[in-house]
Every structure is written in C-alpha cells, then in structure tokens.
Amino acid sequence: xxxxxxxxxxxxxxxxxxxxxxxxxxxxxxxxxxxxxxxxxxxxxxxxxxxxxxxxxxxxxxxxxxxxxxxxxxxxxxxxxxxxxxxxxxxxxxxxxxxxxxxxxxxxxxxxxxxxxxxxxxxxxxxxxxxxxxxxxxxxxxxxxxxxxxxxxxxxxxxxxxxxxxxxxxxxxxxxxxxxxxxxxxxxxxxxxxxxxxxxxxxxxxxxxxxxxxxxxxxxxxxxxxxxxxxxxxxxxxxxxxxxxxxxxxxxxxxxxxxxxxxxxxxxxxxxxxxxxxxxxxxxxxxxxxxxxxxxxxxxxxxxxxxxxxxxxxxxxxxxxxxxxxxxxxxxxxxxxxxxxxxxxxxxxxxxxxxxxxxxxxxxxxxxxxxxxxxxxxxxxxxxxxxxxxxxxxxxxxxxxxx
Length: 403
Ligand code: GCO
Ligand code: MG
Known about the structure:
By secondary structure, this protein is an alpha/beta fold. The protein has two domains: 3-104, Enolase-like, N-terminal domain (Enolase-like, domain 1); 108-367, TIM Barrel. Helices cover 34% and strands 18% of the residues. The chain is built from twelve helices and 17 strands. It has helices spanning 40-55, 63-71, 80-101, 105-108, 128-141, 184-202, 218-228, 247-252, 272-276, 292-305, 320-332, 377-380, and strands spanning 3-11, 17-24, 29-33, 117-125, 145-150, 179-182, 207-211, 235-237, 259-261, 282-283, 309-310, 339-340, 352-354, 357-359, 362-364, 373-375, 392-395. Strands 4, 5, 7, 8, 9, 10, 11, 12, 14 and 15 form a ten-stranded mixed sheet that branches. A three-stranded antiparallel sheet has the order 1-2-3. Strand 14 (357-359) and strand 15 (362-364) form a beta hairpin. Helix 5 crosses helix 6. The protein is globular. The N and C termini lie far apart (44 Å). The structure holds D-gluconic acid and magnesium ion (MG). Magnesium ion is lined by residues 211, 237-238, 263. This is D-mannonate dehydratase ManD. One of its GO terms (molecular function) is mannonate dehydratase activity. Keywords: Lyase. Pfam families: MR_MLE_C, MR_MLE_N.
C-alpha cells in the first residue's frame, strides 16, 4: 500500500489547526493533527519541507518503521515541533490502517477495555459566583468531572478564564502575544477558597480538578496541595514548570493531593523519572504532541507498570482529529484515568466531521473505520490562518514568569 501523496493544510475554523493528509495508491486516505498552538507554521514547514516528501513511495502499513525512520533517522530527536510532526503522520497512518481493515482504530489497539471514556470539562469565572454558575451548566450537561478556575482579585487578566455566556477561553488574534499578570501570593490565597466554594456549593459527588499552569515553586506547590486536601481534588495539574522532574519529589513529600503533569511533554524521556519514581499520579501527554498513537501507547505502558494513569491533554487547540485519536487510545488501554474535553468552537464542524459521541459524562470514539473523522479540505479553504499566540505571563514587577 504505497503512499502517493502527503500534504499539509492550515485552516482556522474557530481556531488554527494544522492537518496532514496522506493518500495511498488504493485510494485510502488518512488524516493527522499537527497543531502546535502558537507555533503552527513551524510544524507545517517541518512536515511540508522535510517529512512529507520522504513519505511518498513508502508502504503506509509499516507504521512502526516510518516512526523510527523519522525519529532516529533525523539525528535531531525530540522537541515539540519534531514530535508533533511525527505524531501527525503516525495518527494518519493509524487512520489508514483502520480504514483498510474496516475497523475503528481502538479495535486494532486491542479492543475496548471499558464502555466509555470519562472526560472532564472546564468551568471558570471572574468571580466565585460566576464560576458557580458555569460549574452548574457543566453539571447539567452531564459531566462527572469538572476543572475549576477563577480570576485572581487584583490581577487584570488571568489565563483560561472564559468571558462568560457559555463561551470558551480563547487567546486574542494578532502577531504579538497579549500579556497577562501574575502574583503568586494572591493566587495561593484564592485557590483553596475557590475549591472550598465548589465543594460547599456542589458537594463531593463530582470530580473536581484544578490547573496551576506551571506557576508555583516546588515548596509553594507543596503548600497548595496540603491546603486543598480536604476538598479532595481529583488532581492538581502542572503545579511547577514541568521540565524539572525532581521538583516533584519535594511536592510529594508535603501532600497526598494527586498530581498531574505532561501536556508540554513530547517524549517518554520527558516523564521517565516522574513515572518510574512514582512522583505523579496522572500523565497528561497528548497523542498529537507526544509522537502519535505509537509513542503515546509506549508512555502509557511504562506508566501502567508504576500505577500512573493517563489523563491526556484535550484542549480546544488540539483538532478534532487529535480528540478522536485520543479516545481510541483511552478506550483500549488498561490504565486510563481521565480525558480532557474542552470541545471545539463553531464553525469547526464545517471542516471536521466526527463520529465520537458524549453521553452522561463519558465519550466514545464511535465505530467508523479508522479514526472516524472526515476532514473537508475544500471547506477548510474558507478559513485562512489567523495568527494567535498564547499570552505571556509577567509578575507585577514586570519580570516574565513561568507558564
Ligand atoms: C489545559 C491547558 C491549556 C493549554 C493550551 C496550550 O489544561 O487545557 O493548560 O489551556 O494552556 O492547550 O496550548
Ligand atoms: Mg493544563
């Protein structure tokens, strides 16, 4: 099954997505997600200039060989741009394999190990009351797990707080990133109050999550974890900058609050110590940023040996193709924990037609052959690239702070 064409499409139906399309001699076509938020054009160029030309003529069925060819063959290993590009090709090849076999990808991965995939959504507010209203909206939608974020009084803008009215958070368009402000002391006061508020209002029958976005020092994170234990968070996410794996030893020694990390990781090497030393409870690597289905399964297999569960990143800046691929992996692995599901903004459905479904807090990838996502290349043409950056985070004294 020779590959006859591989190309990249950048479109912005709601937000920017980079999509790889791989065609084979017998007409089976696969799609993969190559979106790297704020760095979209780098991955598109890596693919179009370096990887796609090398795919033509190769046997699309040899997924592992193609993965190794691009990973080991390039000499330069790892890194978000490289690994997102390899991931997109890997995802598209699994799509092709499923379509050729007439099976959904999860069947090729060993079949369903559960009936559905528990997902968590995002609730946020400028005030606790606004957060409460948004939390209730998500409960009414059936979610069993909800992430809570609230603005910090005294700070002009806080990352991830949606403007309200059912909308999701979205960075502003433009060629220069917006700048947010940050003050750790204020945050450390507010965060426990916020989780306490959610428990007082809604009780303990829902899983409660919170994202720190890498903003604390290890000892501050230990203090936060200890302060919120009574509110039984499902997890505290990204408490400290994720590349410092040994920092988690210090956090662990101060709290039993479960820890999740990994949305910025792109290989098994980034989380090897975190997993093998049992420094985290959930590994959040995503299928599109951590080398595709092939490499993500390797990470989750290592995690399974050490009692660490999956909790993949699933923000709206990962395309519906990544969401579908994640659901196929989630459904089939033994150590699934939870899946993030932020949903996608209109008009994403005009370009990506999905067969996954949500019911009562759980998702299922559907039973269409392959990933179950159709990408309408023609429709994508109506939504040109819209430059957008994640905000920069500065302390009140003007210094750049961690993300
Ligand atoms: C999350 C994330 C996102 C990321 C974004 C980066 O947990 O969903 O932290 O908000 O910041 O996906 O591209
Ligand atoms: Mg996060």
